[in-house]
Structure to design on (215 residues):
């Protein structure tokens, strides 16, 4: 008998793809069934992770991160959240929904920054202690639409975001890396057209989750 995948679902994609919105939609559906759900974000999910998140997101001329420093800060946050938050929650039979996880490193630091995928997979293995999501949704969005959403978000928030300031070529490489990952692991990674209306995206995600987990 095939074992049920871990109730650990991650959402990936470039900036502006709608991950946070779709996580909230999925969380609400699971809660309506009486399920226990923990929702986290990466970097974050622990006191240490939230402090690292502020460093990683801050857009400031006084704080310049080398690609190597950026990589290790992301990995440090992940190592902490796996051990302090995710594994204990899964042990309590809770669902865990995460806004980003290990595939972000392969897409952003691999595709975007150019680090070796072999190196990144080895570092991810150490940080994750062998933990892999049951399902990963990659919300795929055209660069033009993503840029429009980011611009709208910037108008609504005074806070800068260091990653969002990268040039279009960077995000093209990230998007291509995500698509490559989906081709390599089609059973786990599901590519979702995030350009469709929000309700259609949410319904498509729920159809996959309910089928895979027999809900």
């Amino acid at each position: 008998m095939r074992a049920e995948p871990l109730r650990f679902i991650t959402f990936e994609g470039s900036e502006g793809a709608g991950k946070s919105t779709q996580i909230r939609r999925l969380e609400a559906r699971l809660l309506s069934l009486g399920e226990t759900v923990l929702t986290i974000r990466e970097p974050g999910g622990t006191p240490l992770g939230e402090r690292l998140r502020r460093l990683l997101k801050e857009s400031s001329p006084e704080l310049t991160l080398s690609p190597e420093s950026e990589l290790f800060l992301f990995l440090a946050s992940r190592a902490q959240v796996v051990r302090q938050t995710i594994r204990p929650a899964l042990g309590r039979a809770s669902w865990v929904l995460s806004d980003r996880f290990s595939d972000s490193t392969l897409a952003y630091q691999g595709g975007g920054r150019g680090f070796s995928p072999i190196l990144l997979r080895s570092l991810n293995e150490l940080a994750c202690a062998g933990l892999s999501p049951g399902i990963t949704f990659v919300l795929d969005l055209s660069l033009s639409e993503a840029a429009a959403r980011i611009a709208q978000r910037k108008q609504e928030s005074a806070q800068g975001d260091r990653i969002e300031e990268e040039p279009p070529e960077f995000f093209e490489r990230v998007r291509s890396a995500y698509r490559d990952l989906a081709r390599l692991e089609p059973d786990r990674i599901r590519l979702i057209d995030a350009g469709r209306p929000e309700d259609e995206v949410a319904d498509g995600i729920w159809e996959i989750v309910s089928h895979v987990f027999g809900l």
Residues 67-91 form the longest helix (25 residues). The radius of gyration is 17 Å.
